[in-house]
Design a protein that fits this description.
Elements (H helix, E strand, L loop, with lengths): L7 H27 L2 H19 L4 H10 L34 E10 L2 E6 L3 H9 L6 E5 L4 E6 L3 E13 L22 E5 L12 H10 L5 E6 L2 H4 L16 H5 L2 H7 L6 E6 L20 H21 L4 E5 L3 H4 L13 H29 L12 E7 L3 H6 L4 H4 L8 E5 L7 H14 L13 E5 L9 H18 L4 E3 L46 H10 L4
Parallel strand pairs: 6-7, 6-13, 7-8, 8-9, 9-10, 10-11, 11-12
Antiparallel strand pairs: 1-5, 2-4, 3-4, 3-5
Helix pairs in contact: 1-2, 1-3, 9-11, 14-15
């Protein structure tokens, strides 16, 4: 594919050029019908010449092809359209292309605040939908019938009520799958649907330590499963938590999971399962460098990983015999890249091979603890039990490219080569597509090299993360995405489906309490929604977001 130029002028010109050519083709067709082919043909030629000489299209044939086959695939569209303030709509009298890719979901009496956008004339909400589709950065068009105006909006968008307008949400995901029946016998949705509470930017109840504050918020949904971080706890749960010591005091994973704040969480009767984003102190105190192994891992380091996971798992298994604990890592495909978020740049062979050793050592510690405690109790290990279990899982996050293109990632270069109790999936690369998400879950199950104690069948797979920020996506897209993941994962048989997240962890702007997009300052919570992305069940003011209502309704068997 030809490389797209990077200057704004070319991006603006390309969009307008495509419209000019599309109008030329429309006028030529109209001219033939009216017997004025010569005049319109001449006008069309002049338009094409203008496109080539003044606007910067590569050539008229390419431009005509672009107009004929618009919309282009998303990846092939100009990537820097943010500077456009207006683009011409589909020419009057031209029927919009009716394809699945061009559809919008329409929301009456709904407007959107935004950080970027523009407006053009439009004669219908479908034409406004087309306008939004023709701009790669447009998330929603807002059609105002009395003035025949389409306002396209990108950047950070947030819905608000406004009578008399219709929002046209482009690139909305397909309709959600049929709802899973959580009221059916054996559905156990309360024990499967949960959320993550990790590094919140604010708190709801100032009388509770930050770790427990979010746990109580999630418990309000009726969920019995929570995911928390068990490393760098002072930074991850900073508010109203004077009992956290300095990081240097945490010299092992056991010293973290046995802290009084965590012990209170493990004792909460509302929860039966805890998923732990867990790290040893091999990389440094309180977890230290969680990707140290990307540069290689020694036998001594692997042995220490096993020792620390054994000790922590045995403590939890002995002390809380009726609770289930699942230890896992954070998104392994990013971690294997040393924290880089560039999916097109694969992890090194050294990092992937070291990851095998690192994960196997952690799994070995869990296996030893499970066998030791069960022997002490004279109890058999039963993978089908619903309480009193302990597992290890490896979390992957780049699955679709490996499944469809064979690109080297954790799921095909690490997971098949080591035995693991479970495999978990941070599913942002497929969460909007029911078919792709379902196929990804199946691919995880196929690649999984199970242990003898793995949960049976698809229950050895779970969704570690999914979700969208309320301030970064239209409401209808959030609702459809959540319903896709929850219902597909429940139907597939996943053991857990963990929403991201309970209280938002992503801040924006140069404000007190926000540093590099995260919140670690115990004295400065970030409570202004304008400076948060909106990954939340409960907002800073205590109001419940739509996912809270949906998930609690699902758990209760009402939806």
């Amino acid at each position: 594919m030809k490389e797209q130029p990077n200057d704004h002028h070319h991006q603006n010109s390309s969009a307008i050029g495509r419209w000019l050519v599309l109008e030329a083709r429309t006028k030529m067709s109209a001219g033939c019908r009216d017997g004025l082919a010569g005049w319109f043909a001449l006008r069309a030629m002049l338009l094409c010449v203008l496109c080539v000489l003044c606007i910067g299209c590569a050539d008229p044939v390419e431009s005509m092809a672009a107009a004929r086959h618009w919309p282009m695939p998303h990846a092939a569209r100009p990537s820097r359209m943010a500077s456009i303030t207006a683009v011409p709509p589909t020419p009057a009298g031209t029927e919009p292309v009716q394809t699945q890719d061009r559809t919008c979901s329409f929301e009456p009496d709904t407007d959107y605040d935004t950080t970027q956008g523009g407006h053009v004339k439009a004669i219908s909400q479908q034409q406004c939908c087309d306008v939004c589709w023709n701009i790669s950065t447009c998330k929603v068009g807002v059609y105002q019938a009395p003035t025949s105006t389409c306002y396209w909006k990108g950047g950070i968008v947030k819905a608000k009520h406004k009578v008399g307008v219709v929002s046209c949400v482009a690139r909305a995901p397909p309709p959600p799958p049929p709802p899973y029946n959580c009221s059916a016998p054996g559905a156990r949705c309360a024990g499967r649907i949960g959320a993550t509470h990790w590094n919140p930017c604010y708190f709801i109840n100032a009388t509770l330590p930050s770790l427990l504050d979010g746990a109580h918020v999630l418990a309000g949904t009726g969920s019995k499963v929570i995911k928390v971080a068990t490393f760098n706890p002072r930074a991850m749960y900073p508010f109203n938590s004077p009992a956290w010591p300095d990081d240097s005091a945490f010299d092992s994973l056991l010293s973290m999971v046995s802290h009084p704040y965590y012990k209170t969480l493990w004792s909460m009767p509302e929860f039966e399962t805890y998923i732990l984003i867990a790290y040893s102190t091999v990389g440094g105190p309180a977890g230290g460098s969680i990707s140290y192994w990307t540069r290689g891992i020694t036998e001594a380091q692997a042995a220490e990983e096993t020792r620390q996971f054994h000790a922590a798992a045995a403590f939890l298994h002995r002390t809380y015999p009726n609770k289930t604990f699942v230890f896992e890592n954070w998104e392994g495909d990013w971690a294997s890249r040393g924290g880089s978020y560039n999916a097109s740049k694969p992890a090194t062979d050294l990092a992937l091979n070291s990851m095998r050793t690192w994960l196997a050592a952690r799994q070995h510690g869990i296996t030893l603890a499970r066998e030791q405690v069960r022997t002490e109790r004279h109890q058999p290990i039963t993978p089908t039990a619903t309480q009193g279990r302990i597992f290890f899982s490896a979390e992957v996050n780049l699955v679709e490219a490996s499944r469809t293109k064979g690109e080297p990632n954790m799921i095909n270069r690490v997971i098949p080569y080591i035995q693991l109790d479970m495999v978990s999936y941070s599913s942002y690369d497929t969460e909007k597509s029911p078919a792709n998400f379902r196929a990804a879950l199946g691919y995880l199950q196929e690649q999984h090299n199970r242990t003898v104690h793995s949960p049976p069948g698809p229950a050895a797979v779970f969704v570690a993360e999914y979700g969208m920020g309320e301030n970064t996506a239209p409401n209808s897209t959030i609702a459809t995405t959540v319903q896709i993941v929850v219902n597909e994962a429940l139907t597939f048989g996943c053991s857990y489906i963990m929403y991201w997240e309970t209280l938002d962890n992503e801040c924006t702007g140069q404000i007190a309490g926000c540093a590099a997009g995260r919140c670690h300052d115990s004295k400065h919570p970030v409570t202004d929604p304008k400076h948060l992305h909106g990954f939340w069940l409960v907002r800073p003011d205590g109001t419940k977001a739509w996912p809270y209502t949906y998930l609690s309704g699902k758990i209760a068997g009402r939806l």
